[in-house]
Fold Exonuclease domain-containing protein.
Amino acid sequence: MVASSKRTAAEAGFSHSHCGIGQTLHNITATQASNTTYVDGTESNSMNAEGSATVTSQDWAVAESKSSRKKRRKIERESDGDPSISFFKTRPERVDLKALQDLVLYILADGVAPTWLAVKNARQIKKVVVLMVPALDQKMLEDSELWNSISEESEMNSMSKPDESFTHPDSTAQAQHPASADASAIISPPEADSDLPPQPKLRDSLLRHIIEVRAPGDSRINRVHSPLQGMLIAPFSESTKQREKHGKDEKSFQAVRTPVVNFVHAVSELREAEYPIHPAAFADPKDAQLEKERREKTGQSKSSGWVDTDVSIFKPRILPSSSPPKSHDFLTQGLKAYALDCEMVLTSDEKYSLARISVLDWAGRTVLDRYVKPALAIKNYFTEFSGITQEILENVTTTLGDIQRELLNIVGQDTILLGHSLESDLNALKLTHPFVIDTSIIYPHPRGLPLRSSLKFLANRYLKREIQKGGMSGHDSVEDARAVLDLVKLKCDKGPTWGTLDANGESIFRRIGGTLKMSANGEVVLKTTAIVEYGTPERGLGRDATYKIGCANDDEIVRGVLRAAHGDSVENSTVAEHGKEDGAEEKRTSHSGEGETQDHDQTIPLGGTEFIWARLRDLEAARGWNTLPSDSFLAPASSSSSSRPLPSDQTDHLRSVMRQTLQRIYQIYANLPRRTLLAIYSGTGDMRPLLRLQNLQAQYRREFKVKKWDELSVKWTDVEEQEMKKECERARRGVGVLAIR
């Protein structure tokens, strides 16, 4: 006999209309009584099987199997219980960043359950906020002196009543989803039940689960991969893999013609690719000043012979001309695009100097093709790569200054420069320009930066063209520039996702945004996502997010996160959405093409989005982690030294920034809607010691090709190799926090 239990008809899901004709007769004579409903949802009258007597619904029951009863009780517990996190005893000492991404996909999309922690009542987690805080470490998180110095006002505000200046016609909905014009005015939604056990202090709840997070990378070759891509590029879902099985690349690809301006790189992409950055590229003057100081230290300033193109704002703009807009090509939209390639030689200062430059316009016509005489003596012509010989440069009188002046005459506010690993060419030209498109970035390497596919590979893969076949006679810069131009044109014709299908993932915003959910009114809709980032997030990895919120400082990041979490109210949508000072409108404008939605003008529905990614930057800047090593790191005396010339962590300014960063983290957590998971990660440790050693190794390899061992300024031995391996492991060690509000 199967074990069973009894439950009422109401619990079984039967309505009383299914109880026989006796119920119908009773309804005729006692309509009012039969329609009376108690608070518990059961009706006051029901009939027995024969319909001859009136009994309560609890007087009869339906048989229920043991497994069904267990399943029902589990669902009932999950529908009422708060979500929580607990770690398994078998969890690893360090959690890979990919494991955090898997946790997000498990909660919000179709990911599998993690094997290193248990999420109780995971279905009750309605939102996930991922906050990247570079330069954050465990010592700072556990610094009681810092926490004690933070004002307790935030904790008091999180328990206070809503600010009456933020009201909504539906007061109940507003209480659950307060609007957000100012982070200090946003409050945590009230507890659903007053008889719940008292919650621990918010700070303790926030810091309960601190974990060590390992950044993506390859320790065998001493490489640390991008922590941005590590979180924001997710593995393909099973449905995507199935689609790719039935048709790959050209056969199944749906082309979407896209203006070339949409591929101009954001500052974050340029910084990650180690570009010298033009002052106009920064929306925040503080960032521009930091970059200016970095360029001074690394010899990339005007005093070292560098020039910046005549551009004053960060968005390409068509200059007045006689041609009407209707005559403009859809892909260029009246802008000028020049493909550029340079050939270099090694000079006596152990640096690469310009020896040839080739520039092609959008139509493929050669605009500039000149040989250049370096100012210093040439030590190596690298003929097998550059195609440059002593005979070619013997009678050349053109100087780098001449080329700079020519470029400044043709490159301006309406110009986009195209190239492959273009930062090398710009370094040789000693020139910066804010609008660049790099084919090594728009056709990403499957494993992400810092790895890049070669131009020869991309030309063969996507253009079906063999280039750089000169052998000992070297490369042809005109041929390389033409390959770059054709790759960019192909990208514009096919769309943003062309050339990325060979990569090992898709945007996490697209993955989550393709997941269905049940809306409040019972409709099946897609989940929504948001990115809250400095500058113009729609240019970079956030282009697939439903909402892109551009910010100028960390305080705006806090407001943007809370706005995305709660949504915009009717009255405050304008203030909450823009959340910026007067005159900052232009820095929020996206480079949209024809028919593209201006995301900054959209209102986020009340209730907010399901997934939010954001990044705080002040701490990184204060610690100097966003500054690449200067040339002093290449000094021979430092090659075997393990000392780290890092700024002191005990300065008053740094302590102030650390305190402000913790305050902002706490502010976000305290004001999130209930049942929201906050996942914080630092990305990496301090990368500067590793970058110093990588620069030393690169210089050694350059010199080793042309010098005798005794003449090397840098000698790379097993001591340096082992030191670099240690620094790579240190750089990959970050910190993370998991907390459910």
Notes: The radius of gyration is 31 Å.
